Amino acid sequence: MPFLIRQTLVYAVPLMLVALAGVYAERSGIINLALEGIMIFGAFMGVLFVRLVQEWGWFQAAFDAKDYASLQGFCFLAMLFASLAGAVFSLLLAFAAINLKADQTIGGTALNLMAPALVLFFIRIIANQNTLNMFSGDSASWFMLKKSMFGYGRKEEMGFLGSTFVDKVYVATYICILLFVIMSVILYKTRFGMRLRSCGENPQASASLGINVISMRYAGTVISGALAGMGGFVYVLTTANCSANGDVAGFGFLALAVMIFGNWKPLNIALSALLFGLFKCIAASYSSLDINGDGIYFLKELGINTNLYRMLPYVITLVVLAFTSKNSRAPKAEGIPYDPGKR
Amino acid sequence: MNKESFWNKAATRSVLASLIAIVIGMMAGSIIILIVGLTNPALGIKGAWEGIRLVFAGLFSTGRSASGSLTFGFNGTTFGNMLFRAMPLMMTGLSVALGNKAGLFNIGAPGQYLAGTAASLYVALSVPTSVLPAWLIWVLAFLCGMLAGALWGSIPGVLKAYLNINEVLACIMTNWIAANAVTWIFEGSNLRNVLEGTKTGYIYKTSTVMHDVVIDGVNSTVGAAVPEGAQVLARRGGVATGKMGLDALFAGSQVNGGIIVAILLVVVIYVILSKTTLGYELKACGANRYAARYAGIQDKRNIVLTMALAGALSGAGAALYYLSGNTEFFWTTYQSLPSEGFNGIPVALLAINHPLGVIFSSVFMSMLSICGQKLTELTAYNEYITDVIISVIVYLSAFMLVIKLWIGKLNNRKAVK
Questions:
Q1: Which single residue of B188, B192, B304, B350 has CA 20 to 30 Å from B358?
Q2: Does the pTM of the predicted model rise above 0.95?
């Protein structure tokens, strides 16, 4: 059970962060299909940052001195760097969609094509292979919390809460959860957030009240890029051992599904991310999953094919789309270029 | 006067805009190559210049001379391979273009392509050649590939027509459902290549000849050579597209009759779109669905039909590619979608959604991929730079309208002078 919860969180947390990224863009009126591409780009830049800092030797020094706080600090800096990269990359979409009134779907598709191409081009030149790894060591031993850090011995148990939420958990996961809460509150409870949301519903009305629609839409897209970039890095940090290979296995599109299933609302998104994360976790490790610790592999005995679990999120989203299309809460003005003269 | 009206024509402007997008895309690629070359002492300005030449003229590259400099010349094999790679792109590009003509952005081409792949491979490899002749199996597999693609494409079509669900979202979901479904289908099948030890993860080429045999009471599958004393139950495989004389023209290349089938399909779609009532109705729906309905056109039926047709074309592309007999399918697709599907989008955009334009833009795209291959073979750069170029072109296509307006303004200024 601790393993199941821990592993579900590993998948669910980047998923909800990237889905929230989608919400920020769409609530401001820009369809961000490029989530996948921004994740790929953010993941690459984050891994590159870790790699470069490692080459300078600070990492090894901190690791040898068992200075775990510094290591987590480096990890946090890498997350910031990845989100900065994501924000810069998303400016491409913002410029095309807002200034040039481009087709946002095609613009997003272009970014989805561009990110893996650029990233793989540079990875091949830097590393002479298709995967960019850390310079040394692995993410688990450097960034993961372990019971030994809290004075527990190899054989000692931390108890249910400890082994679920502390042992073998990345601090990055909790930073993301915190960020998710903060960003949700900003979107709903602050003046800025409400103004941003109004631009996705009726930009002309917002403009008539003195809101600068252009800058609000820029803000929405750039925040979206920052969150997606960070989500991409956290995803590869926690699931791919901090290595970038120009691919996040459709995670950005899954986040899009989470956003739709969550009806563009943060709380629903958090819950649906947990659900889809659970599916993802089951698909990845169902044959060795012992839920209540009685030595019976329940899911394996159930005999449901792995591929079904992988497929389910998309099927569910499609069904939900079909049933809620009549009263969908999708922002009214999303995807429509802002035209001040239109009423 | 005549000359001016030529430059002011909408079609001319569209072609110009596409050409500008191509030029800017290739310049962007060259700039990246130059920057990487200048910052990397192993490459330097000389390496960068070699890279840039290969990006523009990789099609004519014939390798390196004894002194180490790049050599260029006509190479039939490269040309044939270019046509071969253009074949699936032509179909997926036509699929996306058809969708765009009817006002539907068919981003579902990868899923439809996968559906076509699975169906055509399944039929081609599992129908025994002792029951049907190989050429008939080819036709059957091709049609099944188209049918599977059509079914897959009609899902978003139905959702769009009857429930008004955004076809882009529905297509994205069906893409990933297809990616998982195809893995599921092949995971338990006996079509996975087990005869060649190094080919794990691949499905047999359709040209592989296999025998289902019983040896000492045990069922198994063997290759072309049947061991002595084995009882043959069925003979499978050995299906491949005919060369139709193209191998004489482009010796040593992969090209085959499939390219002719693809061009025929392009012409068929062109005729449907421009000469038939159906085509007129599709375009009317694309221009304004509600106005078309007011004019008595069944908009719902037309949306479903468009997506089914588009899906059939993507499926046909997959069938042509994998039935050629010299290509292998990597069956664990659940983590990624086929690039042929997504690259249909730039093909259609560059062709300004014109069916005949798709022929040229798909050949251009496959030329770029050949250039990328040469770049990897001959320099320290790699083929992904061509994907960057393609993505820049797609990015520019997103605001093609602005570029066209800009060209128009430029022309007007000339006219005033």
A1: B304
A2: no
